[in-house]
Design brief:
The protein is an alpha+beta fold and 292 residues long. It has two domains: 230 residues, Hsp33 domain; 55 residues, CBS domain Like (Alpha-Beta Complex). The protein contains ten helices and 14 strands. The strands form three sheets. Strands 9-8-3-4-5-12-1-2-11-10 form a ten-stranded mixed beta sheet, with helices on both faces. The chain has a two-stranded antiparallel ribbon with strand order 6-7. α1 crosses α2 and α9 packs antiparallel against α10. It is elongated. It binds zinc ion.
Amino acid sequence: MNNLIKALTCGGRVRVYITNTTDVVNEAIRLHDLWPSAASVLGKTMTVALMMGAMLKGEEALTIKIDGNGPIGNVVVDSDSKGNVRGYVDHPHVHFSKKASLDDVTTLGYNGYIDVIKDLKLKDLYSSTIPLKTGDLAKDFTYYFASSEQTPSIVALGSTMSEDNTCKVSGGIIIQLMPGALEEDIVFLESRYNLLNNFSNLLLEHSNLEDILNLVLDGKYEILETKEVRFYCDCSKDKFYSGIASLGVTEIEDIIKTDKQAEVICHYCNSQYLFKEDELKQLVKGLKKWKH
Ligand code: ZN
C-alpha cells in the first residue's frame, strides 16, 4: 500500500507533499509491460501527478501530457484529489541506461512540451503549457510551478528498478513556499536541499515517509493529511458505449458490415471491451430513434 502525506513546515508558511509510489509503478509495469526506462519516466510523472492531485479538492482532477520527442513518445497521466492515478506511454518497450543508472532524459527526450490540464469543475478546463527545458522531470516541474503557478517549489523524484524488471522504490517530494514565506524559511530550506539530491537513496534507506520528513525537515513539521494512493482506472463498457455512439450511425453501420464487431482497448489500463454485432445494431437503433 502506498501513501501520500501533506504537511506544513516553517510555521505553516511552507507546504510539503511526499509520497511513495512503488506499488503504483509496479501495477503500471504489470498492466503495460513497461521496460525499466519507460517505467521510470511514467512512474515519475505519476508521482508528480499524485502530489499535484493532492493540491486539488473534491471532484477536481488533472491530466499531465508530456511529449519530449524522445523514443517513449507521449506520456499521459490522469490524477485526482482522492489519490487515484492512471497513465500510459506510447512506447512501453524503451530502455536506456547510462553509467548503470536509468537515463530518463534520453527516454523522454527534451525537445517538446508539458501540458497540464486541470478540471476544476468550472465551465472551462484550465490548461497550461510549458516547454520542456531539460527532460529531467524534477527540474522541469520545478520550472512549471514557478512559471505557471507562480509558486516557488523544490521538486525531487526518485525511482530504482530491480533486475527482474520490477520497481524497487519510487516516490517524490514537493516543497512549496506559500505567499507569506519569509527569508529565514528560504535559508532553512536551502540548508536542507542537499538531502534531496538523491531521493531514490532516501526511499531505499527509509521505508517510512515520516522518517524522510523528519530527516529533510529536521523534525519541524505538522502533518495535515495522510492518504492512500493507487493506480486506478475508472473505465467501463458503458463509457466506451458513448465513445462508439459518438462515431455516428454511418460509421457504426460500416463497422457492422466489415468487422461484425468492435473491440476497444483502454489506453490507460489495457482493459479490452468487445461489442458484438447485436450490441452495435442495438446502438444504431437507439441512435436513429433518438434522431427522430
Ligand atoms: Zn481503463
